Amino acid sequence: MSGETRDVMSRKLGPTCGATEGGSEEAEQQERSRDGGATSGSEASRRTARRKHQTMVEAEQNFAALLERLRPECETLMARYEQKRSALLPIVHLFQGHQGFVSLEAMNAAAEMLEMSPAEVEAVVSFYTLLYRRPVGKYVLQVCRGLSCSINGAEDIMAYFREKLGIGHLETTGDGLFSYEEVECLAACDRATCMEVNLEFVYDLTPAKVDELLESIRAGTYGVAPMTQTLPPGRTWEIAQNDQIASGRKSPGAVRVEDPDNAGGVGDASGTIMLDHLINRDVYMFGRTNERAVVDSRAVVETMGERADHAGH
């Protein structure tokens, strides 16, 4: 990851917007007092559903204001690139810094500004593990399980984290404070076992250091700022794509697309966009551009193409 991208990802931005978990608890107490304190399980479930719906409505209303506030910065990011779609990652990082995750509204707004389809934006956001499509905890704890850390006791550290937090991999604590993830190599092998807290490194982990870390975060004295949290997170931020497909539901980017298996793919029903790329291959691959550090020579490209064709036969 580049220094610029990491800076954007770890930026501690602004106050949160939308309903907070504390507000939800207060609303629940008020409803209980009106009901005389006695409620059934079904009534409690209905109240929970109403609170979640109200929170989502408020978040959508606040997003319109957030978009207008961030639009000038988005335009500045787009102006840096020869093709404005190249600003996609910085823009979704920006939204995540203010929302705590990349919401559907943020992906749709990015698609509109960059003249991309929602499916293309969602494909990029879903590819990167540091971009969250659902709310996460205020502190994302990522423990390295790479080879060097595993040799140096990562298994014990991960088991200790799971025990102390009461959650597993890709889960969030009920109070919304911690999200826990076991990740691949963080490239700090000389200080194994290591982890990141909101993308800030913590080295030479021991159970005692884990206890100290968790206690200081809970006390509000830890040296890393919490992530923005505009919506209370659920148990996990993982999206089960296989279940979604098996049940016949579409991802947001595929809504209103009748046939994703058309000639040119989603957003290119006639295949003209794909055809344009093929016709203008020389321009894209060998023309001057500010977006590629190195342009491969025609001889290299053609040689690799011939090898690929030969391997295919």
Structure report:
The protein contains 13 helices and 5 strands. The protein has 313 residues and is of the alpha+beta class. It has 3 domains: 3-127, no CATH class; 139-219, Glutaredoxin; 261-312, no CATH class. The radius of gyration is 23 Å and the shape is globular. Helix 5 crosses helix 6 (118-127). A 5-stranded mixed sheet has the order 2-3-1-4-5, covered by helices on one side. 50% of the residues lie in helices and 6% in strands. The longest helix is centred in the N-terminal third of the chain and has 39 residues, at 41-79.
- Structure classification: alpha+beta
- Terminal CA distance: 37 Å
Radius of gyration: 23 Å
Strand percentage lies at 5-15%
Query: How many alpha or pi helices?
Result: 13
Question: Order of strands across the biggest sheet?
Answer: 2-3-1-4-5
Bulk shape: globular
Number of strands: 5
Share of helical residues: 40-55%
The biggest sheet amounts to: 5 strands, mixed
Low-confidence stretches: 1-28, 30-39
**Overall mean pLDDT:** 77
How many domains, in number, for the residues?
3
List the helices and strands in order: HHHHHHEHHEEEEHHHHH
Gist of the model:
This protein has 313 residues and is α+β, with helices and mostly antiparallel strands. The protein contains 13 helices and 5 strands.
Question: Helices, strands, pairings?
Answer:
Blueprint: H1 3-9, H2 21-34, H3 41-79, H4 88-99, H5 104-114, H6 118-127, E1 139-144, H7 147-151, H8 154-165, E2 171-172, E3 178-183, E4 195-197, E5 200-202, H9 207-219, H10 241-246, H11 272-279, H12 281-286, H13 298-312
Parallel strand pairs: 1-3
Antiparallel strand pairs: 1-4, 2-3, 4-5
